[in-house]
Structures are given as structure tokens and as C-alpha cells.
Amino acid sequence: MGKSAENHADQGEAAVDVHDGVKLLDSGVNFVGEQVSYPPGKARIKSVLATMAPGQKTGWHKHGVPTYGYILEGQITVDYGDGGKTTYRAGEGVLEAMDYWHEGINDGDVPARVVVVFMGAEGAENVIYKPEDASGDD
């Protein structure tokens, strides 16, 4: 039992494991049905707080690493081409598509704030933008 749990037990309270908090996401498969797989190499994790203004788009892109997002405020609708569209709202977690072109837009009326976590490896590309002259193929 850790120090914190011991303190609770001494006070007659049930120990609470802080790792058993509110579940935000528990999946290994994303919206388009891809199984998450990690790139080989030495782990490199990057997290950012991204803000999108109303009407702002991400541009068509895909991810070279597993990517998790948590919507803090606002909403973002993601177009996965022939994979469909879905809207993520404040309080929702998303496991992003990796090898599938997609584009997000803040189609709400307030800024969208998203915590984004790239779970990659040294040398792996977190975001790969679609070349302008590429066809609409996945």
C-alpha cells in the first residue's frame, strides 16, 4: 500500500486509487476501424494544447503515430472522406485515425481547445499533411 493509501486507512477511510478516475477513453481501435500500432524505435511522447477558432480547419492530414485528443471546450467535426464524419464535443476523448486522410473543422461558435497527445518514437512524423496534388484516395 502506498503512503497515501496508508494515510487513508489510518483515518478509517477507504483507500482511493487515483488511477481509477473517470474513464475518458478505453480503446485500441479508432473511428475508421484501424487498430492502433506503435512505431518502432525509442519512445517520444509529445502533448500540446491546440486551439481552433470557429470555422478553422486542420487541413487534410494523417498521423504517423498513435494520437489521442481530449476536447476541453467547443466541438470539432472530423471528415474521414469515405470513412464518414463525426463530431467530437467538450468532454469527449478521441483516438485519431492514423493511416487515413482526415480533416477537422471547428464548426461551432466558440474556440475549440483540445489536448493532443502524440505517442510516437524518435524520427516518426506526428502529423503528415496531404500534398496539394494528391488524389482523394486513402
Structure description:
- With 138 residues, the chain is mainly beta.
- Helix content is 6%, strand content 34%.
- The chain has 1 helix and 9 strands, in the order αβββββββββ.
- The protein has a 4-stranded antiparallel sheet with strand order 1-8-3-6, with no helix packed on it.
- Strand 4 and strand 5 form a beta hairpin.
- 16% of the residues are buried.
Quick synopsis:
The chain has 138 residues and is mainly beta. It is built from 1 helix and 9 strands, in the order αβββββββββ.
Count up the helices.
1
Overall pLDDT confidence = 89
Give the radius of gyration: 18 Å
Please count the beta strands (DSSP E, at least 2 residues each): 9
Quaternary class:
single chain
CA-CA gap between termini = 50 Å
Q: Report the helical percentage.
A: under 10%
Structural class: mainly beta
Q: The biggest beta sheet, please?
A: 4 strands, antiparallel
Lateral arrangement of strands in the main beta sheet = 1-8-3-6
Hey, roughly how much beta strand do the residues contain? 25-35%
Morphology call: globular
